[in-house]
Amino acid sequence: MGVPSIGCECEVCASEHPHNKRTRTSALIEKGSTRLLIDASPDLRIQALRQNFYTMDAVLFTHCHADHTTGISELQAFTPKVGYHIPVYSDFGTLALITASNAYLFIPSTPGAPWKKCHYLTVNPVRHNVEFNIGEFSIMAIKQSHGEVNSNGFIFDNSVAYCTDVKSFPEASWERLRNKHMIIFGCLRYQAVGAHAHVDLCIEWIRELKPHIAVFTHMSHDIDYEQLLDYLHSKLPGQKVVVAHDGLELEL
To answer: Locate the Metallo-beta-lactamase domain: which residues (predicted)?
Structure first.
């Protein structure tokens, strides 16, 4: 959910604080020469122009919902690291839904318009709890419950976990989140909701998992940046916490 929300006049939407102006969630993770995009939000073009990134090795999709996938057509403008295609990774079900609704992007094509640097996308299914490699990264997808559907969390080099759009974890996934340097949790709002973790639930998770750094992302317009930061410091004394905002860069 982008902030401000269309037609809303709440305190957060009316705020002039730059961190209360948030595009839909995507993330870029880099190691050495390897660059991976997590999700293609509807705001991907704006994000890429703002952060000045135009090349990538691959895309990882957490799930098929529109706020995480409908920027997929923008991938045609990115320069692949190898050849003329960009590999796309996710679980079988998510890939089936993405390819069904964007079939034209997965059909090999010859060079056309000069702006179209990526000629097609390739499908690369992954299995939960099985490591795979992309460039310099070792990655594992874990299963997450996201209300009536499942989503993927991704663990990079057994050190950094990216877990947005999640309400609960199967036991096998939960155990893999222990002893991490950084965990990034999506937290939609303060109130409990059906398909997303809320702030206090994420706090409970962090207290048990004890990552070195805990990052909160994917916040709705119910959440003011500074107020959330103060609340987390009061509830998690001694824990290093970060509230994500557009353009945030973290050393992994």
So the answer is: 23-198
- pLDDT per position as a tens digit, 160-184: 999 999 999 999 999 999 999 999 9
Strand partners, 143: 152
DSSP state for residue 3 in the 8-state scheme = B
User: Where do the domains of the chain lie, and which CATH numbers do they carry?
Assistant: 21-109+116-126 (3.60.15.10), 138-244 (3.60.15.10)
Question: pTM higher than 0.90 for the full model?
Answer: yes
End-to-end CA distance of the chain: 26
The beta-strand segments (E) located in the chain are: 27-31, 34-38, 55-56, 58-60, 79-80, 85-90, 120-125, 131-134, 137-146, 149-156, 160-163, 182-186, 213-217, 240-243
Count of residues making up the chain:
252
Residue that is written with structure tokens 């990655």 in the block: 139
How far, in Å, CA of 67 to CA of 64, rounded? 9
Which amino acid type is present at position 248?
Answer: L
* Residue type at 43 in one-letter notation: D
Give the closest residue to 151 by CA, choosing from 80, 218, 228, 103: 218
For residue 48, the surrounding DSSP H or E stretch is helix 44-51
Query: CB-based contacts of 79: which residues, under 8 Å, 6+ apart?
Result: 54, 55, 117, 118
pLDDT in tens, 128-137: 999 999 999 9
d(CA 235, CA 217): 17
